[in-house]
C-alpha cells in the first residue's frame, strides 16, 4: 500500500545513481522492472569485495554494492543489442509510467530506445536519463564516475583541510556522494513529472547530470562565491557557522560540538568547567570567536583531550548544546536513537537466509514504507514479467530464450 502503488517503472540502469532512483521508487510501492544484460547483469553485481555470504558462510557472487541499491525490484535479462530484445523493451515501455536509464548519451538511440522513439509508443511515458555531464554541452559524451564529478564541480575544493596544515588539500568525500544526490534529485524530478502528467500534461524527458547535481549541492558555499568572488576556505572538520563548530579529540575518541549562538556558548563554557572563556573579551560573541578562531580552538582542543568522550558528551548534552560522538559504522548502528528508529532491518534472502539492510528514511503516517524484498537474482523474473505483462506464452518465451534475446 505504498504511496506509489500502481506506478510501473522500467529500470535500464546500472551501478549506483540510477539503481538508487528506482530502489527508492520501489520502496514507495512502485512496480520496478530491472532490465539487465544476460549472463552478466548490472556491473554492480560484481563490484566487490565484499560479497554476500550464503547461510552456510560461503561467499556468493553478489556484491554488497549491488545489494545497497536494488531491493524491491524484479529482474528480467534482455539482450537489447538484438532486435527481439529491443522489441521487448519497447513493449514494456508501452506498459510503463516511467523509464530510467543511465547509458552514455546517444547509446539507446542506436537501438531505437531513446525518448523520441519510445514517446511514439507511449506519449505519457516519463523518460529520465541520468548521465555524467548531461545531454548537452561539449562534455556530454564523455564518461565519468563520482570522483570526477566531485573534482570538476568544485565539491572537492570545499572538503579537506587547508593547504597550510599537514594533509591539507582538496579531499574527496568518502562515499559516492554525487551519485546519491543525483538519485534523490532524479526522484524529485520524476515525481514532479508524474504530477504534471496526471494533470493532463503528458509525458516528458528528464535530463539529469551528475555534474549539475554536484555543483548545485555546494549550495551556500557556491552562492557565497557568486556574490563575493571569494574562493571558500577549507576548514577540515570545522564548520562555517558559530565557534566552536567542529570535532574534538578526547582522551579516547572524538566528539563533534556545534555552538550556534551566544546563549549556547555560555552554557557550553559552564558545562566544560571554563566559564572564563565566556567572559574573555576575545570570545564573548560570535563574530569575535570567528575572528579569533585560531586562538580559541587550540584552547578547547587542550581541554577536551583531558577527559574521555562520554564525560564531555554527557556534560554538554545536559547543558542543551548540540553534541555527538564521531561514530564509525559499528558505533553508528549501536546508537540508541538509530535503533529506536529501526534504521537497520532484516529481510528474507534466498541464499543468505536473512539480509541486513538500511531502512528507507522516509516516514509516512498513511502510506508507510514496508514489505521490503531482497534484490533479485539475475533474470529471476523474466518469465513472470513477459507472461503477466506482455501476455507471452511459454512457447514464445522459450523461443526468445533459445535465440539469446532473453535469459
UniProtKB/TrEMBL annotation:
Entry annotated with the keyword Transmembrane helix: no
Keyword field: Transferase
Record-level Gene Ontology MF annotations: CoA-transferase activity
Protein name (record): CoA-transferase
Organism: Novosphingobium malaysiense
